[in-house]
Design a protein that fits this description.
alpha+beta; Fructose-1,6-Bisphosphatase, Chain A, domain 1; 2 domains; 9 helices; 38% helix; 27% strand
Length: 267
């Protein structure tokens, strides 16, 4: 029996909700954030580290035979997990949207996925501020607080609102999407996990990001796909089973919007 058949989405949800409510929210409410910079210009807080440590320990209690890949590990450790885990591992972002968290902006989430044989089988994203839990199991659909969700039914790019990260796009692509807008509007939430979850819930029609980390897209990509979205990289190839530590992502609620964006990115 595969591990994903023995481990339920509810088990993962319980762990993330405890971490969110007992570690993240109290620190956020106190507005006392101890942070330091990373080599890529992002920041890490004591809450990121505490949250990862807690969740990793809880996951080991569930099944100590599953490898672990977390954002707050060294790159060497992350790459070793990707290459030596036989395709099965936990993938965790303990606090996605750390800059929002540290700036007292209420836009952050905890994101966890179980990858088996190279594919995401279970996914859970918890937004502790809104008490919204997004979950998915491969082949069974996506849910928000237990209620099934589906992607937007929009098929016309001109009517679409997208999540675009201009900072990580190539200069020509960033200029093209900023200046020659053939979509209705764009947003950037500062949390990849929330953008994926909200795309799956119909709160937007597409995502374009020039370089998400595997912990940014693992859980969210399954939730969006199970909600009916088209998910892949800029070439239209799937993000799994050959997941990279970092990858451009392109996702859309419909094939027509996805193809129109893919063509524009290829120009």
């Amino acid at each position: 029996m595969s591990r994903s058949n023995r481990i339920t989405v509810g088990m993962l949800a319980d762990i993330l909700k405890r971490a969110g409510k007992e570690i993240v929210l109290p620190a956020y409410a106190a507005s006392v954030v101890v942070s330091s910079g990373k080599s890529d210009g992002s920041i890490v807080t004591e809450t990121d580290l505490s949250c990862q440590s807690y969740i990793q320990a809880e996951l080991a209690w569930l099944d100590d035979g599953i490898a672990f890949l977390g954002e707050e590990m060294t790159e060497a450790e992350q790459l070793a997990c990707l290459h030596n885990s036989n395709g099965s591992y936990w993938c965790l972002d303990p606090l996605d949207g750390t800059t929002n968290f540290a700036t007292n902006l209420p836009g952050f989430a905890l994101s966890l996925a179980l990858i088996e044989n190279g594919l995401v089988e279970l996914a859970c994203i918890f937004d502790p501020v809104r008490d919204e839990l997004f979950t998915a199991r491969r082949g069974t659909g996506a849910r928000l607080n237990g209620t099934p969700i589906t992607a937007s039914a929009e098929t016309v790019l001109a009517n679409a609102v997208g999540y675009i990260d201009f900072k990580r796009l190539q200069r020509d692509s960033a200029i093209a999407f900023a200046c020659n807008r053939n979509y209705r509007s764009q947003r950037n939430l500062g949390s990849c996990a929330l953008e994926w979850a909200w795309l799956g819930a119909g709160r937007g029609q597409f995502i374009i990001h020039g370089g998400e980390k595997v912990w940014d897209f693992s859980a969210g990509s399954l939730i969006a796909a199970e909600a009916g979205c088209i998910v892949g990289n800029f070439d239209g190839k799937p993000l799994f089973p050959d997941a990279k530590l970092s990858s451009p992502v392109l996702a859309a609620c419909s094939r027509t919007i996805h193809d129109a964006l893919k063509e524009q990115l290829g120009d």
